């Protein structure tokens, strides 16, 4: 519930894009999330039954053995010591309940963790950064950011296989409607899989405190049909558009320090610290899900990222008006 409110408020709402904005783990839409939902319900049912029995007995006892008018306050009820039956019952029953819970949890954990990806699985490498997501497709030679494109379909189990790493501190990858959380830890790789059934946008967020802008490390999964995914990947793979009408704007961009941190494939810009900008305009949002990627926001962002996302690693370069106009004009050609 809390995560629903938080993410729904923070995520930029992109006009015209149908989104699964209810980031509620009780409305699962993929395999791992379904398994976890079922075990959550079972655990809830068992603990609710325990609560009802225990609370019921307490309420009954309080009422049944209350002090009545005229009763002697020194009159103690009969004391029972060392009843083997009672002690056996309250030892054995809880042990059985705990073993049932351990058993079903272990089964679901094994089912989710040990699912081996089919040959056709889509391999995705996600690298957490303060405070954005780098997304790589090793089989396609594609790098993008903050939007994880994956394949939707009925084939199921492990159709998308994610390798999770971190460039700095511990982050956590969480799309509540698709799967549980998995941490991204420096110097190690964690794995998880997702099999969204329906195409669409699923929103989520970083789920491990990772610094000032943790709450603005938002995330979206774009699940597509195989054909749409291939089309997207083919465009991502192509080098940046070289538009002759934007030649001056490009020259300005290439002369600034933007190129030290950002890559635009096929140009001198080859920095690796910040998000790859080769196809920036195909992305729905800026600043890891905070703002809709439109002209107004892009201009504000380039002008002073610190005003929009204080503490983020991109400084304000105090660009002149002409430089700012040129940089934004050039970025807008990167489709
Ligand atoms: Cu990354 Cu919190």
Keywords:
six-stranded mixed beta sheet, 9 helices, elongated, binds dinuclear copper ion, 335 residues, Immunoglobulin-like, Helix Hairpins, alpha+beta
Describe this protein's structure.
This protein has three domains: 31-69 and 82-113, Helix Hairpins (Orthogonal Bundle), CATH 1.10.287.90; 117-227, Cupredoxins -  blue copper proteins (Immunoglobulin-like), CATH 2.60.40.420; 244-331, Immunoglobulin-like (Sandwich), CATH 2.60.40.420. 36% of the residues lie in helices and 19% in strands. It has helices at residues 2-10, 31-64, 84-113, 226-237, 247-255, 258-261, 295-303, 305-308, 321-331, and strands at 19-20, 122-129, 132-137, 142-145, 147-151, 160-166, 171-174, 182-184, 190-194, 200-206, 218-224, 285-286, 291-292. Dinuclear copper ion (CUA) is lined by residues 128, 131, 171, 206, 208-210, 214, 217. Dinuclear copper ion (CUA) binds next to loops.
Quick gist of this model?
This protein has nine helices and 13 strands.
Q: Superfamily at the CATH H level of the largest domain?
A: Cupredoxins -  blue copper proteins
Helix coverage percent: 25-40%
Q: What is the average of the pLDDT values?
A: 89
Number of strands: 13
Oligomer: single chain
Question: What secondary-structure arrangement, pairings included, does this model have?
Answer:
Layout: H1 2-10, E1 19-20, H2 31-64, H3 84-113, E2 122-129, E3 132-137, E4 142-145, E5 147-151, E6 160-166, E7 171-174, E8 182-184, E9 190-194, E10 200-206, E11 218-224, H4 226-237, H5 247-255, H6 258-261, E12 285-286, E13 291-292, H7 295-303, H8 305-308, H9 321-331
Bound molecules: dinuclear copper ion (CUA).
